[in-house]
Amino acid sequence: MIDTNITYTQKDEGKNLYRKKTYYTLVIEQEVLAKDKDEADKLLNDCGINHAAIGDDITETKDGVETYMVDADYKDSDTVEYIGKVVYDTDNYGEEAIIDGYVKIDDYADENALSAKEESDVDTSINLEWERKLGK
């Protein structure tokens, strides 16, 4: 007995059953907001293809052609690529961007630059240290 999804009856007597395996390259490009490449890599490694969604419904079946098997295997991936940084959109909104929370993805921003909040925290920390040294 042959395992097949083809429906056949006595009217098909004399026909041959054929099977063809076709390999496709599937590319999934995902994006994530993260504090650095290491965090991005970890988050992206926990994602990827949902193998439960790989099934017969992604194939075309007609004219007596039925899908016998569908599978997806991991082959390779690129390294995490820096695209841009979320920054306040002062170019379009001036200082109102900070007040109203207008942000954009800036592809020219330095990947390792401190955010406005981080810079403020550093400034506060420096000021507190100077005040401590001056005995205030």
Output the keywords.
136 residues; mainly alpha; 2 domains; two-stranded antiparallel sheet; 4 helices; 2 strands; 26% helix; 6% strand
- Strand segment count: 2
Report, as a whole number of angstroms, the end-to-end distance. 90 Å
| Class by alpha and beta content | mainly alpha
Question: If strands are numbered along the chain, what order do they take across the biggest sheet?
Answer: 1-2
Number of individual domains: 2
**Largest sheet properties:** 2 strands, antiparallel
Number of helices: 4
**β-strand amount:** 5-15%
Return residue spans where pLDDT drops below 50 for at least 5 consecutive residues. Answer: none
Query: Radius of gyration over alpha carbons?
Result: 28 Å
Q: Could you state the order of secondary-structure elements as H and E?
A: HEHHEH
Percent range of helical residues = 25-40%
Shape verdict: rod-shaped
Would you tell me the overall average pLDDT?
Answer: 86
Helix and strand arrangement:
Blueprint: H1 37-45, E1 85-88, H2 90-93, H3 96-100, E2 103-106, H4 116-133
Antiparallel strand pairs: 1-2
Please, could you describe this protein's structure?
Helices cover 26% and strands 6% of the residues. With 136 residues, the protein is mainly alpha-helical. The chain folds into two domains: 1-81, no CATH class; 83-136, no CATH class. The chain has a two-stranded antiparallel ribbon with strand order 1-2. The longest helix has 18 residues, at 116-133. The radius of gyration is 28 Å and the shape is rod-shaped. The mean pLDDT is 86.
